[in-house]
């Protein structure tokens, strides 16, 4: 059972590392960005709403995101294997809701993995990635939103004694190893 949150700026490698861990240890990978992009692709009501925020690099409203996570966490694979949260929580309100949900499920977090990458490297990586919302203006806004709304979660989880900071620059494999060590996994 693994129960972790990946925290860090856009482009820090949260998705890359979350997928590697999820595959290796067979733990559900829950990416709110992936869930929203799938909804956009399907053209659902959620997708239409989400797209208007995602296109600008703004956050989708908390109640919408919290609803998605509440439903996903209630599924049996999570009960059996835990979860790797990637891109959630992104605001204090989301983090507090997550706390309440996990308490209800009796599934306390093991750790919050904070992947730290400097701004210069982030912009470089995101421009290279070339996703629809990876244009220069949108990237700048996403960084701003990250700083204002998401970065306070570093202190939030640090004060709970859950935060592990890992340098997000380096070989993917090496970073995975550090994450595994911090979670007490053998690798
Ligand atoms: P990501 O793939 O995590 O970079 O997310 C892409 C976009 O989806 C973000 O820029 C937001 O617009 C939206 N999004 C993803 N996760 C969240 C979240 N937890 N809260 C609000 N918006 C989110």
Helix count, per DSSP? 10
Instruction: Name the helicity range.
Output: 55-70%
Structural class: alpha/beta
Order of helices and strands: EHEHHHHEHEHHHEH
Query: Biggest sheet, open or closed, and with what strands and sense?
Result: 5 strands, parallel
How is the largest sheet built, in terms of strand order?
Answer: 2-3-1-4-5
Rg from C-alpha positions?
16 Å
Describe the structure.
With 187 residues, this protein is of the alpha/beta class. Helix content is 59%, strand content 13%. The protein has 10 helices and 5 strands; from the N terminus they run βαβααααβαβαααβα. The protein has helices at residues 14-25, 32-42, 45-54, 62-73, 76-81, 92-105, 119-129, 136-150, 152-159, 172-182; strands at residues 2-7, 29-31, 82-86, 111-116, 163-167. Helix 4 packs parallel to helix 6 (92-105). The longest helix has 15 residues, at 136-150. It is globular. It binds adenosine monophosphate. Adenosine monophosphate (AMP) binds at residues 10, 32-33, 36, 53-54, 57-60, 65, 87-88, 90, 94, 142. Adenosine monophosphate binds at residues 10, 32-33, 36, 53-54, 57-60, 65, 87-88, 90, 94, 142.
